[in-house]
Every structure is written in C-alpha cells, then in structure tokens.
Amino acid sequence: MSTLLLALGLVMIIEGLAYALAPSLIERMLEMLRSLPESAVRQMGWLVVVTGAILVWLALQISAL
Asked: How far is residue 56's CA from residue 50's CA, in Å, rounded to a whole number?
C-alpha cells in the first residue's frame, strides 16, 4: 500500500509541477490533443500505460537485486 501511495504522490507532484511551471504549454498540448483523432489519442494512452508498466517492472527488478 505504501508503494502505491508513493507512486500516486510522485505522479501528483509531476503533474502539479507541469501546471504550475508551464500552464500555457499545457493549454497548447490540450489544443493539439483536441485536434487529433480519438484513435490516435487512445493509442498514445496505451503507449503511456505500457511504458509505465515496464518502468514499474524494471524498478521492482532492480529493488529485488
């Protein structure tokens, strides 16, 4: 449970920093996302999910050493 809370906290810190430090960049990125077809956005979402899962797996493998 503590690992899940740690991961959630880190995601919130990174997301919050993006909005705090570059809100205009976030706005431009959202506009770009709105112009893309839904299928492309969905593919990007799955790519991020798979990449995140690989990073979690790697972190667990490294911590088991």
From this structure: 10
Q: Give me the amino acid identity at 32.
A: M
Contact 53, 46 (CB under 8 A): no
Residue 63: its pLDDT value, please?
87
Q: Is it the case that residue 16 has pLDDT exceeding 90?
A: yes
Q: Where are the alpha helices (DSSP H) in the chain?
A: 2-21, 23-35, 38-63
SS3 22: coil
Rounded CA separation 65/43 (Å):
33
| Domain boundaries defined on the chain | 2-63
- 18 contacts 11 by C-beta, under 8 angstroms: no
